[in-house]
Specification:
The protein is mainly alpha-helical. It is 79% helix and 0% strand. The model has no long low-confidence stretch (mean pLDDT 94).
């Protein structure tokens, strides 16, 4: 069983990622329901694990397969990626226990996760350094994003000693420059490739300095959030919304020529400009002192609409394709895809509900519970394939 489970990098990392994602969503719902009591801030039991434990494992499982291919290098040895997997898994278990025990154990878990991220970065960097391919553009930016993740993780550890300003900065850096930067760097390469396979003759029309522009704007976004300058925030949000809208229209994705396994990836991309549009509305409200509350609607539009949707799309495709099955979405999988989109809208409504004195806590619990349920249904279908390797 172990040999089958560890036979391909995506199997252990996807399996752990989905289990930890469900676990932390349920912890969030239980905490808001007052069924459990955690002596930690929401950054500890929600923001940090989502950034440094959960989403990163999904995309590491993908990168340990594709990164060597991008650079025409030998595959990552099983022993190597399984060592990384066990570090992440150990850090995750210790982290969960620490939420119910002590700050010191929480700090130990963070140290383990920093080591897991750092050793994974070193593995990818060694592959990058050995490669003699002439075009390393995309892999360079993948490593840049990963580097920001390690810095953000270290800063969060420093913040655990009482430096709360550092904590906020680390979360913003981890979300935008690490997760968003990493996922978009992979998306802008793989989604066009998958599209060209499905639609012969399709060729993406990307901007020449796409990733350079994206990372520059994201850097300014993190700075604007730290400075809390309304004019600066408005200008950056306007730039992000305008650029991503222009870019995705420019790609002319063949939406009506592909099946569900592909259109769900397109749908994930469409949430990007929508998320920054909500962020633009929020910064406009702050700039003109309109007093309208958005809570974390923009951030969760990106987190659920883009991150979660694209990982389900990639995950379904990779799980089926690497097990010898045809990468296609059956009716149940399509229902899960659509349900996740509905949950994005629900989470947006949850943030906005504060303006009308609705029961915010109820809608948080509902959002987390429904997303957990959708992921559990997905797991019943695909987790067995991940564990058995067939």
């Amino acid at each position: 069983m172990y040999n089958k489970f560890s036979s391909q990098p995506h199997q252990p990392f996807f399996a752990a990622g989905i289990l930890f994602l469900i676990t932390f969503l349920l912890i969030l719902a239980l905490d808001y329901s007052n069924i459990i009591t955690l002596n930690h801030s929401i950054s500890n039991f929600h923001s940090y694990p989502m950034i440094n434990l959960i989403f990163i494992q999904f995309f590491l499982g993908f990168l340990f397969v594709t990164f060597p291919k991008f650079l025409t290098q030998a595959a990552v040895p099983i022993k190597t990626y399984m060592n990384h997997f066990f570090l992440f898994f150990t850090g995750g278990i210790v982290y969960i226990v620490s939420l119910f025990t002590s700050t010191e154990l929480n700090q130990l878990a963070i140290i383990i996760l920093i080591l897991a991220g750092l050793t994974s970065f070193i593995t990818l960097f060694k592959i990058y350094r050995k490669s003699v391919v002439t075009n390393k553009h995309d892999t360079t930016w993948i490593l840049v994003a990963f580097g920001f993740g390690i810095i953000a993780n270290i800063l969060f550890f420093i913040s655990s000693f009482g430096f709360h300003i550092v904590e906020t900065f680390s979360i913003h850096m981890g979300f935008y420059l690490f997760l968003f930067g990493l996922i978009f760097s992979i998306s802008q390469r793989m989604i066009p490739f998958f599209s060209s396979v499905k639609v012969p003759g399709y060729k993406i029309n990307k901007s020449k300095y796409l990733l350079e522009i994206v990372f520059s704007l994201l850097t300014f976004k993190v700075i604007s959030l730290s400075l809390q300058n309304d004019i600066f925030s408005f200008l950056i949000d306007l730039s992000l919304f305008s650029f991503f809208t222009y870019e995705i229209i420019k790609w002319k994705l063949p939406v009506f020529k592909v099946t569900a396994i592909m259109w769900v990836l397109y749908l994930a991309l469409f949430w990007i400009p929508f998320g920054f549009f909500i962020s633009l509305l929020e910064s406009s409200s702050n700039l003109f002192d309109l007093g309208f509350v958005f809570e974390k609607s923009a951030l969760h539009t990106l987190a659920i609409g883009y991150f979660a949707t694209v990982l389900l799309g990639f995950g379904t495709r990779v799980v089926l394709g690497h097990s010898g099955r045809t990468p296609t979405a059956d009716i149940l999988t399509i229902i899960i895809f659509v349900t996740v989109q509905a949950i994005v809208l629900l989470r947006i409504f949850t943030g906005l509900s504060l303006n009308w004195n609705f029961d915010y806590t109820f809608w948080i619990i509902a959002s987390a519970t429904l997303l957990s349920f959708g992921l559990i249904v997905w797991s019943f279908k695909y987790l067995k394939i991940l564990v058995s390797g067939a």
